[in-house]
Amino acid sequence: MFQRLSPRRSQRTSRRQAIRRARNWAVCLSAAILLATVVSAAETHKDIHYNVAPGSAVFIVNQTGNITVHAASGRQLQVTASQKSDKVEIDASQTGNRVTLRTHLLQKVSGEEARVDYDVALPSGTNINIDSENGPIKIDNANGNVTVESDAGQVDLNNISNGSVQVQTLNAGISLTGVKNARV
After folding, report:
1. Is 15 buried (19+), middle (13-18) or exposed (0-12) by CB count in 10 A?
2. pTM value?
3. Over the stretch 75-99, which tens digit does the pLDDT of each residue have?
4. Local confidence band at 32 (pLDDT 50, 70, 90 cut-offs)
5. Sign of the torsion formed by the C-alpha atoms of 135, 120, 146 and 179
6. Residue 99 and residue 128: Cα distance in Å, rounded?
7. Inter-CA distances, 61 with 73, 147, 148, Å
8. What does pLDDT average to over the chain?
């Protein structure tokens, strides 16, 4: 019933098994390297919090990415900055009544690698100043001065009150709705 393998045939079988094991290890190692690459290229988030007094000013300078500003409850400025690569960094500082958020390119990059998206919860009575090269800007329910400069990104301002509104774009549309008690 059982056949005894010749030594030569047994060696071939052992070699085949060793080759199969080596091939399986190579596939596993390749998968691990691919997973590590995907994880390192994944988006990273930076959460920034500052307490601000009424009349404070927030300055955002960003090369590429969405900037969304909405009302916050309380006096804490809350910012989530989402980097699309490790080739950019976000600097945040507060000096007196001024908060500055600035995107710096660490290397020459373009497109998605340069992108940083900002989500800003802005306390009432805080002024906002945004300078963006590329990417849409949306500000909802701001109560204070609003200044926006955009090279190429749609600017949407909704329900802005009790301040001045200044918007300048080079190659983008501007939408203002619900502006009250404000100078445009």
Report:
1. exposed
2. 0.77
3. 999 999 999 999 999 999 999 999 9
4. low
5. positive
6. 10
7. 24, 12, 10
8. 87
Token reading at 110: 């373009």
Q: β-strand 98-105 against 88-95: which pairing, if any?
A: antiparallel
* Position 27 pLDDT exceeds 70: no
Burial class (CB in 10 A: 0-12, 13-18, 19+), 137: buried
Q: Which two tokens stand for residue 132?
A: 């963006």
- Helix (H) or strand (E) segment spanning residue 6: none
Does the pLDDT of residue 40 top 60, yes or no? no
Torsion angles phi and psi, residue 43, rounded to 5: -65, 140
**Interatomic CA distance for residues 112 and 115, integer angstroms:** 5
Give ∠ CA 90-174-130 in degrees, rounded to 5. 25
Closest CA relative to residue 128, chosen from 153, 152, 160: 160
Strands 127-134 and 137-140: unpaired
74 DSSP assignment: S
Burial of 74 (0-12, 13-18, 19+ CB in 10 A): exposed
pLDDT in tens, 118-168: 999 999 999 999 999 999 999 999 999 999 999 999 999 999 999 999 999
